[in-house]
């Protein structure tokens, strides 16, 4: 019996992008169900994730898996016949999880503040955001990917930032290329992968969507 795989997602979501990237890397065929988070959440979403009631949710043969990093690890373990995403060394696995957690707890929230705030609040968020990006860039160093020569788990955990770079720059009026050139070079290498270039959204489309959101919320 073939696997039945469904992803409940919202296209601009950086968390959802991780799941899409992992599924693409593993070559897993799945049904994509876009969720309208603006108005009523679908019955399927509420049924599959009754605790948090949010995307992304991976449904595998009727069983839901929630939270993006958990989903990525589940995909890695379930489709283990394909090249692994997590490092085989326990210490390297722990480090990859540490940095993925850092991105979740610091970078993504600051990025949200950057585009949702204005004036002094935005300036403060931008300063801290750039500082965090530089910390992430220092972990990359001179490596091609965060795991070394091979694209893997931590790259997937961070890849959603790539699609949002243009939005952050537009809303914050700064250049990530000028601040973190190695991180930008990494993102370009990632997007050379067909699995990602065909899976992740156009940064300009995403930026246009966010600017419309800002306008609707009166943040201009």
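-> sequence recovered:
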């Amino acid at each position: 019996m073939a696997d039945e795989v469904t992803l409940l997602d919202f296209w601009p979501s950086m968390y959802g992008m991780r799941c899409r990237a992992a599924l693409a890397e593993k070559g897993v065929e799945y049904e994509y169900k876009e969720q309208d988070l603006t108005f009523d959440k679908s019955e399927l979403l509420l049924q599959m994730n009754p605790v948090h009631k949010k995307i992304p949710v991976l449904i595998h043969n009727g069983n839901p898996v929630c939270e993006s990093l958990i989903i990525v690890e589940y995909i890695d373990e379930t489709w283990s016949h394909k090249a692994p995403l997590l490092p085989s060394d326990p210490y390297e696995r722990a480090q990859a999880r540490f940095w993925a957690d850092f991105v979740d707890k610091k970078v993504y929230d600051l990025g949200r503040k950057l585009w949702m705030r204005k004036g002094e609040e935005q300036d403060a968020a931008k300063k801290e955001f750039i500082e965090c990006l530089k910390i992430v860039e220092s972990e990359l160093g001179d490596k091609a990917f965060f795991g070394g020569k091979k694209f893997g788990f931590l790259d997937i955990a961070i890849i959603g930032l790539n699609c949002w770079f243009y939005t952050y720059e537009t809303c914050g009026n700064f250049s990530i290329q000028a601040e973190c050139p190695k991180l930008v070079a990494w993102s370009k290498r990632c997007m050379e992968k067909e699995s990602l270039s065909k899976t992740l959204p156009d940064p300009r489309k995403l930026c246009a969507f966010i600017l419309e959101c800002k306008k609707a919320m009166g943040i201009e």
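The first helix runs from residue 14 to 26.
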